[in-house]
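thoughts on these C-alpha cells:
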Amino acid sequence: MRQWREMVLAVCLMMAGLHGEARAELTLPALTTASAPASEATLTYMNRDVVVFRASLAGVTPEKRVRRAERRLADHERTGDTEVVGQVPITIGTQQGIGITLNDTLLFTLLPEDRDPEDGRPLGALADDVLAALKDALAARHAQTDPANLIKGLLFALLALLPTVLAVFLLMRLRHWLAIRLQRQMLHRLEANMPWLSYLAQVLERLVQILVALVSIALGYLWVTYALAQFPLTRPFGDQLGNFLLGLLGNIGMGVVRALPDLITLAIILLITRALTQSVKALFDAVQEGRVQLPGLYSETVGASRRLVNVVIWALGITFAYPYIPGSQSDVFKGLSVLFGFMLTLGSAGVVNQLMSGMTLVYSRALRKGDLVQIGETIGTVEEIGTLSTRVVNLYNEVITIPNSVVMGNQIRNYSRQDEGAGVKVGCKLTIGYDTPWRQVEAMMLNAAKSTPGLRDSPAPCVLQRALSDFYVEYELLVTLVDTKTRPFVLTRLHAEMQDEFNRYGVQIMSPNFEAQPDGGAVVVPQEDWHKAPAAPSSRPAIPE
C-alpha cells in the first residue's frame, strides 16, 4: 500500500508540473522560444591555456565542463601513470564531437560549437591544436617536478641577477659622478656671473636621476622576465612579460617611423626659424655697433627691438610647426592648449600692462642704463630696464625695483641725457635780506661757484633773482655739472663754499626766514671759527672721482 501511495503522489506531482509548464507556454511564449547563449570558459593547466569551451554539452555549461576536466587532471596527477594523449569521435544524444583522452580516460569533449566563430577550420584541426597544448602542459608539469630543472632555473636566475645588480650599481655611480660635474660647472658659471645656468644644471640633474631610475626599472623588468622563463610553471608569465615589452617597443618604433616625415618637417621649420633669428641678431648687432644705420632705430632701442622681432619670428615658426608636432591633433593636446590659453587670458592683464609700459619706456628713450634719474621720490642710477620693471640704484646703494607702469605714471627727470651736449644745470637757492646789495650777493655766489670743483666753465655760472618776497630776495645760482653722477656731492661742496663766502663778508643768509634779530646783528660765523674742533684745518666736502 505504501508503494502505491508513493506512485500516486508522483503521478500527481508530474501532472501538476506538466500543467504548470503548459500554462507557462501559453502565457509567456516569447521567453521559451530561445535560450540564452552559454558563456565561454577556458581550461588552464600549468598556467597554459588548453582549450576554450563555448557550448553546453548535454545541459552542462562551459564552466562545469572546465571543472570536470580539472578534476580529471588532478586525479591523473595523484595516480602518476604514464601519459598517453589521444582523440576519439564521440556522439552524445544528437551532439557529435571529438573526445580528448588521457591514458584511455576521457578528459573532455570538443563540440563544433566550441570553435571560434571566425575560425573556418574543421573540428579536427581544433582537436590537433588542443592535443598539442595539452601535451605541452603535461610536459611542463613533468619538468616542474624534476629537481634538476628547478636547480638549473634557480642557478640561471641568480647568475642573471649579478650583472643586473652590477649594472644598477654602475648607473648609480654614473649619476653621482654627473651630479658632481654639474655642481662644479654650476659653481664655475656662478663665478663667471652666469647665475641662470645654475637652474639649468638643476634641471639636468633631475633629468639624469629620472633617466637612471627608468633604466634601472627596465633592467629589473628584464631580469624578472628572464627569471620567470627559467621555470616551467612560470614560463608563460615570462613569455607574456617579454611579449609585452617587445610589443611596446614595436609600437614605439612604428610610431617613430610613422611620425618621421612630420619630425623632419618640424626640424626644417625650426632650423629655418633659428637661421632667421641669427640673421636678425647679426643685423641688430651691426646697428648697435654703428656699422649699419636704420631709420628709427637707436642704440637704446636695439635690444628691445631685437627681442620683439625674435618673438614674432618664433611665434610664426611655432604656428607653422604646430600641425607637425606628434599628438597635436589628439583631444588631450587640444584640451591642454585650451587650458593654457584660458590661464594665460586670466593672468595676462597685469603682465600685458607692464609689457606695454616697458615698450613705451624703451621706445620713448626717456632713460637708459647708467642715467641718473628721478622717478617720483626715487633718485638714482638706472641699472636695468627690464621687460616688466626698471631697477634703480640710489645714493645709499640700494636697489629699487619699480614696475614699468609706475615709471610711466610718474614724471621722469633725467639728469644725464644732456651730458654729451650743453650739460645739465643745477640750481642753488638762497634768500638774502634787502639790506644787502644784490650786486654783492651775485658776486659772492659766483665766487663760491669758482671755488667748487666738478663744474663746467662753459656755459658760465649765472645768478637769477627768482622772487622779491616780503622780507628777503630769493636768489638762484645756476651751474653746469661735469658729471651728473656726482650731483649730490657737488651740491654739498657748493653749499659749503656758499656758506664760507657769505660768512667771510658778514652777510646773513635768510634761510630759514629771519624777520628780525634780538640784538639787531647779523647771524654769521666769523672766519676764525670755521675750523673749530673737531673740524680739520682747511677741510672741504670731498667729491668722488
Notes: The longest strand covers residues 85-92. Residues 2-32 form one domain. The CA atoms of residues 151 and 231 lie 10 Å apart. Confidence is low (pLDDT under 50) at residues 1-36.
